[in-house]
Design a protein that fits this description.
It is built from 13 helices and twelve strands. By secondary structure, it is an alpha/beta fold. The protein has a domain of 125 residues: Thiolase/Chalcone synthase (Peroxisomal Thiolase, Chain A, domain 1). A ten-stranded mixed sheet has the order 3-2-4-7-1-8-12-11-9-10. Strand 11 and strand 12 form a beta hairpin. The protein is globular and about 55 Å long. The two termini are 17 Å apart.
Length: 370
């Protein structure tokens, strides 16, 4: 049976890239990942493009065709959208084509240009990832605030525990030159930042970012970093239909599939990039992925168990909170970042976790350093 290997990676600077268009992000990512992988353009069999808002904010749909036009042989290409899980889903589509033998080397590309519009317009666009009829008038800070309230009520998760997630991720991003924010923050700074939706404050929230990422996957390699397992999990789009507001069943399903395919357990994961669009999101993630028992994610974060020297390193890039969250690029960035650092840091098993909406979609990948 074929194995899927990471042949090359690329991550742009994340942030407010005023002088870079959606098209230029695409061009730079394609040329950057080909150079990194030492692969000729003609060797790419297919392209999978992750993007959520190109049609809404830039008026540019058909991004698969645009990416394909950058290659002399115009390989087949498609755009994949799954809200903030678009990148993870594009990875899965690419991997399934490789495992089926349809292709042998493919490009997965994530791009998003979000900062050129007003706050009102980007907020309205993002709400499209929720149930717009039944959750009408809601915003994602508001919806995640409901989840935070439920977790705090059931498990006594504290304000300082939420803040410790943001502080840790900013500390990690401080050492990442590609991060949107390279600035350390304190617990007090998070606690006193403007309230967005109680209990979430401004420094609990990931920023609006521009950026691109890319990965070349192949079945032709036999060493390096391998995609050992992956899984997709789903749940109801509307929070009102959930059986629990203190965990994401989608994450648990996706993780179970990925662990089974990789033939490992959560305890074998040493480093992970998880979906911390809000600080409570990381606490949900590390519990649902099996790193900590339900209700102990906040305690683990406050005690420093999720950074270097702790039980597991979570979001070494700075995560969505501090590295940034250009939606289409995020899920691919997670894989690209860990794959490019896994060998040099000596981690045998790494995990990525990408979420769409308020947990309606989740994608988990496990990377193995051979």
């Amino acid at each position: 049976m074929n194995s899927v290997w990471v042949a090359g990676t690329y991550i742009s600077k994340f942030g407010e890239l005023w002088d870079t268009s959606l098209h230029q992000l695409c061009v730079d990512a394609v040329s950057g990942v080909l150079e990194n992988a030492h692969i000729e353009p003609k060797d790419i069999d297919a392209i999978y493009v992750s993007n959520m808002l190109g049609g809404v904010l830039d008026g540019q749909l058909h991004l698969g065709a645009y990416a394909s036009s950058l290659f002399p042989h115009h390989p087949p290409a498609q755009r994949i959208e799954g809200a903030c899980a678009s990148g993870g889903l594009a990875m899965v589509a690419a991997e399934e084509s490789l495992l089926a033998g349809t292709h042998s080397t493919v490009l997965v590309l994530g791009i998003e240009k979000m900062t050129d519009v007003s706050v009102q317009r980007i907020t309205q666009a993002l709400v499209g990832a929720s149930d717009i009829e039944r959750e009408y008038g809601g915003t994602f800070p508001g919806l995640y605030a409901l989840l935070a309230q439920a977790h705090m009520k059931e498990y006594h998760t504290s304000r300082n525990q939420l803040s410790s997630v943001s502080v840790k991720n900013h500390l990690h991003a401080y050492l990442n030159p590609l991060a949107h924010f390279q600035k350390k923050i304190t617990i007090d700074a998070v606690n006193s930042s403007p309230r967005v939706a109680d209990p979430l404050r401004m420094l609990d929230c990931s920023p609006v970012s521009d950026g691109a990422s890319a990965v070349i996957l192949t079945t032709k390699k036999k060493d390096g970093v391998k995609i050992a397992g992956f899984g997709v999990g789903m749940d109801s789009l509307c929070l009102a239909d959930r059986t629990s507001l203190t965990s994401f069943a989608s994450t648990q399903k996706a993780a179970s599939l990925a662990y089974k395919k990789a033939d490992i357990l959560p305890k074998h994961i040493q480093i992970a990039e998880v979906h911390d669009c809000f600080s409570i999101g990381e606490i949900f993630s590390i519990e649902d992925l099996g790193f900590f028992k339900p209700g102990l994610g906040g305690i683990a974060s406050e005690e420093g168990q999720t950074t270097y020297g702790g039980k597991i390193v979570i979001n070494p890039s700075g995560g969505l909170k501090a590295m940034g969250h250009p939606i289409g690029a995020t899920g691919i960035k997670q894989v690209a970042y860990l794959a490019s650092h896994q060998k040099e840091l000596g981690y045998s098993h790494a995990l990525t976790h990408n979420v769409g909406g308020t947990g309606a979609t989740a994608v988990v990948h496990i990377l193995e350093n051979i």
